[in-house]
């Protein structure tokens, strides 16, 4: 929907009224809140706040058996803090996550209440603090990436309290989108990871690491090295982990991934020459790597959850994960090619 938005900007005084979409106006407002501390304070007072305790999100169950994050208004959170005899200044630690598309661009913040007794907060707020690994896969709708982003920002603040150059404490802006020490500005960081589903035209290649739960197989993945392009990382990771040479690849999509910290997953499909598919697996990285037929992949896609005590049952990362999407795309392509 296009609507007329009045943009009063000191930076762009010529922009008084123009036609921009709701999305564009939301993005500009978000940017303004990052730059304007006063505007951000007032957005917090009318916004919603999501709580974490030592990086564990506060959630409550949904009717369908999933989880949803608990959101509090500024007023209700200040009264909770008062009842728990905590200083309201804790709210200064909150970090802007985004603006609600559904709720008239309401600002959304996250706050780690690690200094408070978690049980008391849970009782006050009707929720439970749960480990991110559990929460991420049970959060419904768009909540999983949203909560992951909040946790990633809070973690970054906790880890960037001091300047790595001077050793002095860093200062943050109100939104929490940066920290400074003198002339040095720190911005939140992500580690780029390439994740690639390799195919020989008929089969696809999946692997598992020692740390994976029993039966879980996924696409090959690896952190990009400093200075590498996406294609260089992809070719290197496939060569390192299974000894194959990629002849062509295509980009599929990307996602922020909260494990082990903040990864920026770049999902790709890659092809190898069907005449050169013999694997030379790096056993120090992988516990197993194998080629799978369409039939085997189709069967594993039906497995919703790992079955306890049946490690032989193969299953894939859940729908949230880009690995899942790559596998589904490969299946669709195989079906389209054979019909
Ligand atoms: N979203 C999804 O669908 C999926 C996501 N993933 C994610 O992809 C990520 C990367 O895959 P993985 O195979 O483990 O990566 P790699 O193949 O690159 O191997 C991991 C090792 O690389 C080293 N390393 C290099 N740079 C970094 C960095 N920036 N952060 C952490 N470790 C680094 C570490 O070695 P050392 O410890 O020796 O220093 C680490 O153990 C994983 O964290 C995993 O969570 C994986 C599969 C599916
Ligand atoms: Mg790897």
From TrEMBL:
A Gene Ontology molecular function term of the record: hydrolase activity
Entry's transmembrane regions: none
Class of this enzyme: hydrolase
Enzyme Commission number(s): 3.6.1.22
Domain of life: Eukaryota
Domain Nudix hydrolase, residue spans: 188-315
Pfam families assigned to the protein according to its UniProt record, in alphabetical order: NUDIX (PF00293), NUDIX-like (PF09296)
Keywords in alphabetical order: Hydrolase, Magnesium, Metal-binding, NAD
Catalysed reactions, as listed in the record: NADH + H2O = reduced beta-nicotinamide D-ribonucleotide + AMP + 2 H(+); NADPH + H2O = reduced beta-nicotinamide D-ribonucleotide + adenosine 2',5'-bisphosphate + 2 H(+); NAD(+) + H2O = beta-nicotinamide D-ribonucleotide + AMP + 2 H(+)
Cofactor(s) required, per the database record: Mg(2+)
InterPro entries: NADH_PPase-like_N, NudC-like_C, NUDIX_hydrolase-like_dom_sf, NUDIX_hydrolase_dom
Name of this protein: NAD(+) diphosphatase
